[in-house]
Amino acid sequence: MHGRQETGVFIWVFNEKVHITQGDLEGKAVIVSWVTQKARGSNTVLYWKEHSCEMLKAHGKSKTYKFYNYTSGHIHHCTIKNLEYDTKYYYMVGVGQTERKFWFLTPPKPGPDVPYTFGVNGDLGQSFDLTLTHYENNPLKGQTILFVGDFSYADTYPNHDNNRWDTWGRFVERSTAYQPWIWTVGNHELDFAPQIGETKPFKPFKHRYCTPHRSSGSTEPFWYSIKRGPAYIIVLASYSAYCKYTPQYMWLEQEFPKVNRTETPWLIVLMHSPWYNSYDYHYMEGETMRVMYEPWFVKNKVDAVFAGHVHGYERSERISNFAYNVVNGICRPVKDLSAPVYITIGDGGNLEGLSTMTHAYYGWHRNQDGYAVDGDTMWLFNRIWNPIDDSSDDDS
Ligand SMILES: [Fe+2]
Known about the structure:
Distance between the termini: 57 Å
Protein name: Purple acid phosphatase
Bound molecules: fe (ii) ion
GO molecular function, one term: metal ion binding
Pfam families: Metallophos, Pur_ac_phosph_N
EC number: 3.1.3.2
Domain Calcineurin-like phosphoesterase: 118-313
């Protein structure tokens, strides 16, 4: 029988809103998170390798939070460590109560010749689920989602109705429980509402979602790095301080030299607010961060930058714009083969396949089309190992 007795009252402990993310720098750990309502329930995650009878255990912690007149359920986070690469694991939450079983695949050991497929998605909300359905139905089968921010849009409801965070967690569970989503925060995660006494930015996000920020030396969960397969992925925070001397600036300055392009040839950056955006919508909002960091991106030959925020799709050529020095008047984007391709994907989409060390196939699918229709495709050529001009190669 599931559930348990507490002071004569039968309490049903249901474990839901299950989601996983990478739990370390190298891809050998997974953070499992879930929520129980009413009672705390078990903190334990049971896990085992496919075809193995050896059941392993990890113990996590839980917490609750209040936001205005809302009180959250018990939010559990449990890190499973020392996993083997390229292995299917099953895991179970709700141990001893309402047990629920899921599975995930660990990535291959980071290296240049390990194909891997990422999905890229952002600004998902919960108005309709076409984006997620298209992603799930795509025959190329993404293995990890790079999520570029704006989760539930709870802040657009009266008093930032945090029940919307719960409904979003339920909505995406069918994906987040089975493959890691790499979290980037957007403006809709700020939840800064002094008018109702909520003065701590990112409170719901920080309680509900974990990132492996400490393993890359970051002091906050909003900016961090991971290696996954052939990619080194840097996640930046558009809504945390980033100017000179700030923690994010100091961290990023030290992060670039750590990237070993022989081990992880693909250097990808995620952020919420795009640097290059020709839409009227959110025009120039990413400009100040661009001014701060763009020289580093070009110097370190970032391959691609994914952003959300703008609810549309846009892909730049390889351009840069940092020659301006107050007196020379040079302030326009110029072609630059050391610069990343900037992709705004606030409408959902995917990056499919890193099949060799020097090429990555990228495809974007519009929600109004089926997954068989490519809205935009490109072969990205690696900026370190094969930095040829690929900017206008849009019909490979
Ligand atoms: Fe946004």
